[in-house]
Amino acid sequence: MVHISRRNVLLSAAAAGATSLLAQSGTATAAPGSRPGLPAEPTGHGPVGVRWLEGGAPAELAAGTTWGVPWPRGAFGPDQAFSLVTDAGDAVPVQSWVTGWWPDGSIKWTAHAVSGSAPRAEGYRLEPGEPAAPEHPVTVRTSGRRITVDTGVIAVAFQRDGEHLVEFVRRGDVTIAEKGRLVASRRNAADTDRPEEIKTQAFTGSIDEVTVEQEGPVRAVVKVTGKHRRNQRGWLPFTVRFYLYAGSEAIRMVHTFCYDGDPERDFVSGLGVRFDVPMRDQPHDRHVRFAGQDQGVLAEAVRGLTGLRRDPGEAVRAAQVAGQATPDPATWDQRVTSRLHLIPAFGDYSLSQLTANGFEIHKRTQRGHSWLRTGGGRRARGLAYVGSPSGGLAFGMRDFWQLHPTELEVTGAATDTAQATVWMWSPRAGAMDLRFYHDGLGQDTYEEQLEGLEITYEDYEPGFGTPYGVARTSELTFWALAATPDAERFSQLADANATPPLLISPPEHNHAAGVFGSWAPVDRSTAARERLEDNLAFLHGHYLTEVDQRSWYGFWDYGDVMHDYDRDRHTWRYDVGGYAWDNSELSTDLWLWYHYLRTGGPEAFRFAEAMTRHTSEVDMYHLGEWKGLGTRHGVQHWGDSAKQVRISNAGYKRFYYFLTADERLGDILHELVDADRAFLVLDPGRKLADEPFDPDPEALPLGKSTDWGSLALAWLTEWERGGDEIAHTKLVNGATTLAALPNGWAQGGTTTYDLTTGRFTGPAEPSISIGSLSSVFGLIELMTELLQLVDDERVHEQWIRFCRLYNASGDEQREETGSDWGNLNLRQAYSRATAYAAVRLEDDELAARAWQELRTGHAGYPEDHPFTAERVEGTDVLNPVDEARLSTNASAQYGLAVIQCLALVGDHL
């Protein structure tokens, strides 16, 4: 049984009683070297066991793996080194760096990387100490226009300008691949409109800048930015990172592009990564491989020697099928040898996954001739190979079938140079159609738009449903192999590509480190706890089921879930205005990440990971005037006219960053530090305003709860990571000036925000203005963490009072604030606020009240809610489904409330 101290706000003895950042220094930056108060003698920490997320010891890694580990406050100073050993005591080369800091300058988060060539075990021990050195450290050398990374097995040359991001990939003197480049194509009209003429243009990625972000000894990272260009046009800006590990023959690639076209005329019809692969052996010794579903592998030769009218010999056939060099043709049956030129050589192959439930493989001899259907299946793992016994390239994409329409293509394998292409958007599919889905329905005025909101819950405004500035990130892996792999190893590579192995620290250690606020590992020690744990498990499991049975897949959709359900049609309201895609509404992301923290389960991590990838890219803007804002829930991810920081919320993303050290998420978190600038160009209250929008940078109409909470989470994260002083200043100034208002976060009247300082100004007389959404977009979770860092009595007092009064009686509210707070909604969600106040005030009655609020289930799930699913089949549905009485708003907030109430006042359950 897990025992939790009620005094411990962050539910960790190691984090309790934290000294304040204000008490240390009003001007301290997040850089560890400038932080005062670093413990002269850090307390240290014992070994931490880490294990593979999916369990067991994986046969292959996707180049290597990188993971994050938290540490209690004061445990380690900034110069601490870490070592890694297997459970059996074998040293493992590891590279470590700091990704987060406590206010006193001690280490809060570290990242660690091991190579795919490192000793593999089911478990490891991470502990203080000098790391083992890799046998072949990765090295980085810059010379002229080229940056060369050598892993000891392969050398990869990156060009610093031009079109070829990768000049060559070599094993010794053998070039395995070269001229690695980005390719894209555009059409001027939508295929589905059946225009009289469709024009297609091809674009190639062009390099703007190349940066070496890490140089080893275990891991090197090269970042490339640029645009896709054709003649004078440059568009579809990209950021690509290449990851190489010591002793590894693989390259991991993380590819991000932003859409910056005109959706009425710029229809992306192909988006891919292409390498040239030299073909050195005879066509009958050239091999093509595709990974199918499960362990399936299609293994073929460019010029097949099996099934012929004349038999070349059993040894010849066996060698070709195994991917080995065939014996000298002089030893074959000469009736075959003399007629080799009459056997067609199939130089082009394609595996296309155009839907989540079907892939097909085709091949042809060469361009200008027809394709033959080779085979098909349901869900391919997304890996292909082209090469020979003298070397070849395996190339693939993660989440291949989930992010359809995708394709793996080999062309020219019968010539001296094959081309291997990973299509993130397959040219065999229709072009991307990112246009808004209706004509506006006559909603030309704000009055009409508000009427539309009343019926479909869609907040429409002409021109606001634009995809300009949204992004998508894809993860790819390439293996430069010395020879054609046998079927078993190729299948293992495909597994690593589809689900890259990840090391994790256990929930118990993460909790003891005191990170991420109020949560605790799963505890089924009593019947009452077990009932709640069962409810949480059902909710999470049902949404996992829904992803598949509702097919929530596709390039722009995968990772998100739907907002609300239509029981009449037995489907989610995918076509009803604001009830369709969830887009992080009411903190679904937070719920999924806390579920993972508590359970440590692989399905929980992968579910939350996919959502973070989606919501941080597709649901927010990365370019243009709305950069840093997200889009409210709707039929299209970017379609609603409400552009909000509560959707782009950094608090939803920081989990994944700290747990994996993912650089792309790091970029996005940096973007969000300045998201408050968007309030200069967009008035969130424009449809209800009486006066024209005339923004004053020193007095912006920025919301003190949902808006500020989202911004403050970005500043907190930036400060934790070692960011600049501005983020820290705004974080502290916002908290202290909001607390200085007569009624703090519940204060009414006109409150304004200073963009430069982060300070709020408001009325001196107490009044009340509070909405039910104020704290359900991460504000509660933010303040739980922030209050252990800010030693300002007024901040503590005002926030605890807010938590205590939200669900209090009108009489209590009037007595303390001068006003009744009104008929507030989401009272079950705010039970966790009551629980927080109970802990801080050591108030048993408040603790009991929190559980009563949870059980009552106002705007959520009451105690007698059926956490069950019923089978619906036959003519009532397109496909049989398991249906449950759920809405995503209620599920997310119920999940968060239960998790935090269990952690805070579980002893009162």
TrEMBL record:
**Signal sequence region:** 1-30
Transmembrane region positions? none
Xref: PROSITE patterns: TAT (PS51318)
Q: Which UniProt keywords apply?
A: Signal
**Presence of the UniProt keyword Transcription regulation in the record:** no
Residues covered by region (Disordered): 27-46
Going by the entry's taxonomy, the superkingdom of the source organism is recorded as Bacteria
Pfam families referenced in this protein's UniProt entry, alphabetically: PcRGLX_1st, PcRGLX_2nd, PcRGLX_3rd
Protein known as? Tat pathway signal sequence domain protein
